[in-house]
Design a protein that fits this description.
Layout lengths: L1 E7 L16 E3 L2 E3 L5 E3 L4 H15 L5 E6 L5 H17 L3 E4 L6 H12 L6 E4 L1 H10 L7 E2 L3 H8 L11 H4 L5 H10 L7 E3 L4 E5 L2 E6 L13 H14 L6 H22 L7 H6 L1 H7 L18
Parallel strand pairs: 1-5, 1-6, 6-7, 7-8
Antiparallel strand pairs: 2-3, 3-4, 9-10, 10-11
Helix pairs in contact: 1-8, 1-11, 2-3, 3-4, 5-7, 8-9
């Protein structure tokens, strides 16, 4: 089973493990948990999770389960997740983990990583947002399988001295559009895994430390104005990764490339304006996936994909 771990910006939303007990659903702009709670599908972990769940349903793949807590920035909800996960991850026996918005606590990150490394079978590990930041800060970023940074976050990963994206040195930020040297610098300092989706007006697919592909079409300019589009890509990558029985470099490449393409094809399908909300795009994801089967990775475990008519 794949698990998505993250927070929602609601101080009244306590640590919720109900999402681990059964599948969550998406309807009417809300992420519905098995215990009856509902979370608005806005940018952040809720958008990532809703994307992954709807995509997995369309792919006929078991959707990921959710471990969530409310954390508006104090770190309390994130620490509750860290503590619960450290104690219970052996019982989960995850095949994959997607870590998202969590308060960047370096000590807790290292405890979780050690718990994961003690598992009999090592899961695929994906990190974005706050958890990607703390993975880099910890010095163990290269223990992960996939990061999904945007260009600004890539500059942060390339800065061996910056403890947070806010402190990325200006000469690196000035090079945001020059991906190859930033990637090389991040790899040289072991500040990223060997696989990444670098999100931007052109998406870079990095496999085994090399730029393996770029995705820049279709291009829908209004997507640059919509918050949560990066979460959408990471959710799609999670869904496509969930569909692979055996994870190798080819499967990773197929999943990452399909995620970048599908996000763009969803935008083309929806024709959004700068005022469109991410929940409106995610709501249309099943029909966009059904209409674009050719973009699906060819080696999904299930179902047997038929060529589009």
């Amino acid at each position: 089973m794949w698990y998505i771990v993250g927070t929602v910006p609601d101080p009244d939303f306590a640590l919720c493990t109900a999402g681990l007990e059964g599948p969550s659903t998406v309807a009417d702009g809300l992420l519905h948990l098995p215990d009856g709670q509902a979370v608005p599908v806005q940018r952040g972990t809720a958008a990532l999770a809703a994307t992954a769940i709807l995509a997995c349903e369309e792919l006929c793949v078991a959707p990921p389960r959710l471990l969530l807590a409310g954390d508006p920035g104090s770190g309390a909800g994130s620490r509750a997740i860290y503590a619960w996960l450290e104690q219970n991850i052996a019982q989960l026996s995850p095949t994959g983990l997607t870590f998202h918005y969590l308060f960047p606590d370096q000590d807790w990150h290292n405890r979780i990583l050690m718990a994961v490394q003690d598992l009999p079978a090592r899961p695929i590990m994906v990190a974005d947002a706050g958890f990607m930041y703390v993975a880099k800060m910890s010095g163990y970023a290269d223990a992960y399988d996939l990061f999904t940074p945007d260009l600004g976050e890539l500059a942060f990963l390339a800065d061996e001295k910056a403890p947070h994206p806010f402190y990325t040195r200006g000469f690196l930020l000035a090079q945001e559009d020059d991906v190859p040297p930033l990637l090389l610098r991040a790899l040289e300092h072991a500040n990223c895994p060997k696989n990444m989706i670098i999100k931007g007006s052109k998406d870079y697919i990095v496999l085994d430390g090399q730029i393996a592909a770029t995705v820049d079409a279709p291009s829908v300019a209004s997507m640059e104005c919509i918050g949560g589009t990066g979460d959408l890509v990471t959710g799609l990558a999670t869904a496509f990764l969930c569909g692979h029985a055996n994870m190798d470099s080819a499967s990773m490449g197929e999943s990452c490339t399909a995620a970048a393409r599908m996000a763009r094809m969803l935008a083309q399908h929806c024709a959004p304006t700068p005022g469109t909300q991410i929940a409106e795009l995610i709501e249309k994801l099943p029909e966009a996936l059904a209409a674009t089967r050719s973009v699906w990775p060819p080696n999904l475990a299930a179902p047997q994909i038929q060529a589009p008519a």
